Amino acid sequence: MIEIKNLCFGYKKSKNVLENVNLNLKKGRIHGLLGKNGIGKSTLLKLIGGLVFPDSGAIKVGTFTPSERKVAFLSDLFFLPEELFELNITIDKFVKLNSVFYPNFSKSDFENYLQEFEISDTKQSLKKLSYGTKKKVLISFGLACHCKLLLFDEPTNGLDIPSKSQFRKVILRAMTDETCVIISTHQVRDLHNLIDTVLILDEKNVLLNATSEEVCNKLFFGICDTTQSTEEMLYSEDDVRGLKFVKENTENEESELNIELLFNAALSNKAKFKELFS
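Above: the chain sequence. Below: its structure as tokens.
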């Protein structure tokens, strides 16, 4: 669905944010985009969405080039930024003005998603809503558009614990075999049991791009007594239950993916991860 070749981009000519990035993302999957602050996650989403243009290299989304911003491309794309706009209009008015740009928008689905988030009054002004409530409205609208490409930048910021759970449910409900979802987040625990593919950006490029299945085939996630040797471990950290660790899965054991542990392990063993997942 998304093919990126030799992508370079910088807000200043003398300093690239992304450099020679090559990436393939398939439809029918939820991709979790991870990385430290300022590493280029939001920039990558904007490049894919056609909001900023590559300095060199190429991006293809299906048959479209995002930078050309063709109507057929934009009408099948929804982008939720981390920083939300201020609009002094009601929820109803917002939907009326914007749904016309999305031919697959479903008002009934929008209303159902709002109900999931316990929002009933669509006469409220967006400007007067809390950050979290406004985000729930926009998530509901985006999913109701039934776009093939959904880009979410820190979607769970501002959501309370019950709303984060509802977010996971509505995302899974909206998924189809034709949908490609990319979620950029620092809240890695919020992606637990949600994402199909883990993307980690580091040092202007992609450190890891692997499905959950591929990760668990190559790595074992476990917990042990703090007295156990850490020699074979790629990464470990203290936990109230003992020592959480990641090691190579040389014995083909089954384990449950721990995204937070994976992220820390990858940044601590960059060369090893590139070797394992090349």
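The CA atoms of residues 1 and 62 lie 5 Å apart.
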